[in-house]
Amino acid sequence: MSKKDRPASKAPKVDIGIPKDNRQAIADGLSRLLADEYTLYLKTHNYHWNVTGPMFNTLHLMFETQYTEAALAVDLVAERIRALGFPAPGSYSQYAELAAVKEDRSVPDAMSMVRNLVADHETVTRTARSLFPLADEVSDEPTADLLTQRMQLHEKTAWMLRSLLE
């Protein structure tokens, strides 16, 4: 059958050396990571808009750097889910169900924002770390590399934010 005669909805089978059940489990974990990353992005952007006080300029710029990085990260995580052969979640309701990071509907004071973000970066780190053993078990190096990069960034960001609280 030629390519043009093949039904448009019939995608080729994903055959990357990882069984489908394992790919599904990894994609499910990455979906939780994506939800955490996106929720953290939204919260950080909200704090960027609404921070006030003596540290306004410092925090406003710091939060901008952080949400800009997060915007790039969500794309990397979603694309890894797609490479594993599964759809990436993309709605607020899905993120609300999947995320361990919770949105903030309030406008806390500046240092409470910092404290909240420390906790959230640590939460995202734990979400990524929880998936690492499965990725390692099935030799999914691309996912393991992505998780390592995400953990490194979130641990460093939590440390930097914590330093503001001392």
TrEMBL record:
Indicate whether DNA-binding appears among the record's keywords.
yes
Q: Name the protein family.
A: Belongs to the Dps family.
Report which superkingdom the organism of origin falls in: Bacteria
PROSITE patterns the UniProt entry points to: DPS_1, DPS_2
- Residue stretches making up the Ferritin/DPS domain: 28-166
Task: Write out the entry's keywords from A to Z.
Answer: DNA-binding
Q: Which GO terms describe its molecular function?
A: DNA binding; ferric iron binding; oxidoreductase activity, acting on metal ions
Looking up InterPro entries in the UniProt record yields: DPS_DNA-bd, DPS_DNA-bd_CS, Ferritin-like, Ferritin-like_SF, Ferritin_DPS_dom
Does the keyword DNA-binding feature in the UniProt annotation?
yes
The UniProt entry, under Gene3D superfamilies, shows: 1.20.1260.10
User: What organism does the UniProt record list as the source?
Assistant: Hydrocarboniphaga daqingensis
Q: Which PANTHER family match?
A: DNA PROTECTION DURING STARVATION PROTEIN, GENERAL STRESS PROTEIN 20U
What protein name does the entry list?
Answer: Starvation-inducible DNA-binding protein
